[in-house]
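Wait, can you check?
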Amino acid sequence: MSVRRLAEDQFQPAAFAFSDENAVWADKTIQKYPAGRQQSAVIPLLMRAQEQDGWVTRAAIEKIADMLDMAYIRVLEVATFYTQFQLHPVGTRAHVQVCGTTPCMLRGSEALMSVCKSKIHAHAFERNAEGTLSWEEVECLGACVNAPMVMIGKDTYEDLTPERLEEIIDTFAAGNGASIKPGTQIDRIFSAPEGGPTSLTTEEPKAKTRAKKTDAETISAPVDAAPVPPSEAARPKSTDAETNAALKTPATAPKAAAKNAKAAEQQPISGTAAAEPAPVPVKAEAASAAKPALTDKNRPAGIEKPAAPDDLKMISGVGPKIEATLNEIGIFTFAQVAGWKKAEREWVDGYLNFRGRIERDDWVKQAKALAKGGEAEYIKVFGKKPR
C-alpha cells in the first residue's frame, strides 16, 4: 500500500470550521451514536469536511478530533488509511477519478487517462494551471458492465469514449458540470442493451377476470320468489333400500312380502356390519439386539482404576464419552484392550452399540502398538501419529 501523507505546510490552511449548515448536520450525526460511542462518527465527519473544502486538511482533522474527543493521531490514522480521503488540494471544479481495473482497462480506460494527461496535467494528483481540475487513477467504481467510466464528485459517467470525456472535462472547466447527465453516455437505460430492450418488448395480456354483478342485477330477483327444491343429486341417500330386502316390498304384493320378510330375517339389519373375526396378533420382532448384560461370561475382565491410567483416546475411534464408558466397566489400559478375544470384542461392540466398529478400526492392533512402545511404536506400525 502506498504511503499517504498530509499535504505540505504551504498548502495547509490556518484553521477549519464547518459551515453553519454542515455544523448542524455534524451535531445531528454525532447524536446518532450512543453515549461513549460518538467517535464512530469520525468517517462521516471527515467526508463532510472533504465535500465542503474539496480535500481533508490538517486543520479539519484536528477540528474533528476535538469535536469527538479523540487524539489527533487517531483521526489522522483514519484519514490516511482510506484512499477516499484526498489529503492534497484537488481541482476546485472537478477531480476526475478514472477507473483502471481490468474491465475498464480492457474497454479503453488507458485512452481516458491520456485525455486527462492532455487536458488536465501530465501527472495524477496535480492540478491544471487554473487550479480547477485534477485527476487520478482509482480501483473499481462498481459499474463494470458500463466500462470504461470515471467518477466526478459523487456521480459516475459511464460508457465513455475519449471524445466524450473531453467534452465532459471542458464543460466542468467552464463551470457548467451540473448540466451533464450522470450515468451512461450512450443510448441505453442503466445497463440495458444499447438501443433499448431486446426481449420482453410486448406487454403480456392480462388474465380474464369474471365480471362482477351490478347492484341492479343483485336486487332484480324477486324477494318472495318460491324456493327451488333441491335436485335429486343433492338429496341425502340411504342404502337401506339396497341392503334390506324387507324395505323393497311393494304394498300391493302380499305374496312377495312374505318371501321378502323371510329373507330379511336371514340378512343383517341395515347399518350394522357382519361380525368379522378378530385379527390374529402378530408377534413383533425385536428392533435391535438387546444390550449384553454386565454379568455375561464374555464381558472382558475389569480392573480397579490404576494411579496412572492410559489415555484410551489415543486409540482411533475412542473419544471422551467412549473412554468414560470403558472406564465404567473397568477398562483403563492399552494392555487390557490388546488382550481382548473375539467374544470379548463382540461383547464390548454390542455394549457400545458400535455395530462392528471395533473390528473396522482394529482397536486391538492399535492398543498392542501403544502398549508396546507408546506413540513411537504406533507411528512405526501405522505410519502416523495416534489421534
